[in-house]
Amino acid sequence: MSDLNTATTSSALMKTYQRLPLTILKGKGSYVWDDQDVKYLDYTAGIATCSLGHVPDQVQAKLKEQLDDLWHVSNLYQIPQQEALAEKIVSVSCFDQAFFCNSGAEANEAAIKLAKKYAKDHQKPERTEIVTFSNSFHGRTGSTMAATAQTKIHNGFTPITPGFTYLPFNQMEAIEQIDTEKTAGVLLELVQGEGGVHPADAAWVQALDTYCKEADILLMVDEIQTGMGRTGTLFAYEQYDIEPDAITLAKGLGSGFPIGALAAKNKAADSFSPGTHGSTFGGNPLAATAGLATLDQIADTAFLQDVQEKSILLTEALNELVENNTLVKEVRGKGFLIGLEVTNKAGTWVEKLREKQILVLTAGDHVVRILPPLTTDKEELFTFIGVLTAIAAEL
Ligand SMILES: Cc1ncc(COP(=O)(O)O)c(C=O)c1O
Predict the structure, then answer these.
(1) Is 223 known as a binding-site position?
(2) Cα–Cα dist 80/218, whole Å
(3) Taking the domains of the chain in order of start, what are their residue ranges?
(4) In which pathway does it act (predicted)?
């Protein structure tokens, strides 16, 4: 363990986060330990990032090997680890090519650029806009903040980058409102994570997919939170019986090592040619190694089957809480991306659980967001359910 100063009273950090008075110094599997050596069951998984648990053995071993050989070379050279990760993504999805960057926002930036370039390349230069949906979350950079259809995210940053049109999420009428004259692409989450854990309806998504295909508008799914097994299938789009033109990935892709990706079908991906997009660090040997070791484990049918079974168990238990406790209104989500809507403040539940050494998140004022590592076992799930039920009875 390091000898870092863990005092939280003064800080030279910019105050962009409301940090809790908890300093985590170590993690393994589903658990983390604080600076007092108190052990917590971590059902935040670094906000859907440490999907194989903390410091997973196989990823750790591969990273250690790579640390001895080479950390970084520029994208001006061949990078076999990056090639291998791209091939793996292509082999387990409906996509043909991948581009690597370092975060979710950057992956969405790449998708936004790709849609515009695709329109120009296909003689539709007037198509410059991207459609996104109410309550979405796509990142904090200039364009991805603008793509995020939530005024609270825009506040203080006007003028917001132009070129985004917001339509109502899950509303059939919204599809008709897409302006085919000026729209280059549609970007959407299949389960809105930050926006309160709201799954998209299958019929709506399929109608949107059909509309986009007929109008030759790129349909791009932001799988930054839903991808990498989080919803019980490797990618959430598989559950909607659609093949989008592109998806964006980050969070769970590198088990906590920063990496993002845009994966696309040839039709769209071919619009990126040398010089059109790039990243210094994107897909460097360390990042690509983390990604490949993670994907190798998650893209396994038995692994995903196990996630589905465990998520059913958890969801059923949470539904029992809904039936038996008036404070608990609804359970939403897919797989291990679960939102529990409560009538009181979600923060109260988060605090009470933390007092019992369990970490969860909120998603808005009234939603407790539960993101177990995909590797959590039934015993841990029963512990979580037991503590949550006791808290519900207490409140
Ligand atoms: C759906 C979605 N898109 C994009 C992002 C932005 O990712 P990052 O924080 O890695 O830039 C997030 C992060 O929470 C997300 O949940």
Answers:
(1) yes
(2) 30
(3) 24-55+301-394, 57-298
(4) Amino-acid biosynthesis; L-arginine biosynthesis; N(2)-acetyl-L-ornithine from L-glutamate: step 4/4
pLDDT grade for 10, boundaries at 50, 70 and 90: confident
Fold of 57-298: Aspartate Aminotransferase; domain 2 (3.40.640)
**Secondary structure class of 33 (helix, strand, coil):** strand
CB 55 within 8 Å of CB 28: yes
C-alpha distances (whole Å) from 385 to each of 40, 320, 379 are 15, 10, 10
Residue 351 CB partners (closer than 8 Å, separation 6+): none
CA distance 354 to 194: 20
Q: How many whole angstroms from 393 Cα to the centroid of ligand 1?
A: 34
Q: Which atom of ligand 1 is nearest to the CA of 226?
A: 1
Helix axes 346-355, 378-394, angle to 10 degrees: 120
Model pLDDT for residues 288-343, shown as the tens digit of each residue: 999 999 999 999 999 999 999 999 999 999 999 999 999 999 999 999 999 999 99
* Cβ < 6 A, ligand 1 pocket: 103-105, 108, 137-139, 189, 193-194, 222, 224-225, 250
Phi, psi torsion values for 368, nearest 5 degrees: -90, 125
At residue 25, the pLDDT reads 98
Cα 52 → chain centroid: 14
Place of tokens 């992956």: 107
Q: What is the CATH number of domain 24-55+301-394?
A: 3.90.1150.10
Cα–Cα dist 299/104, whole Å: 20
157 among the known binding-site residues?
A: no
Q: Give the span between the Cα atoms of 297 and 301, in whole angstroms.
A: 10
- For the CA of 194, the closest atom of ligand 1 is 16
Structure-block tokens of residue 353: 């659980």
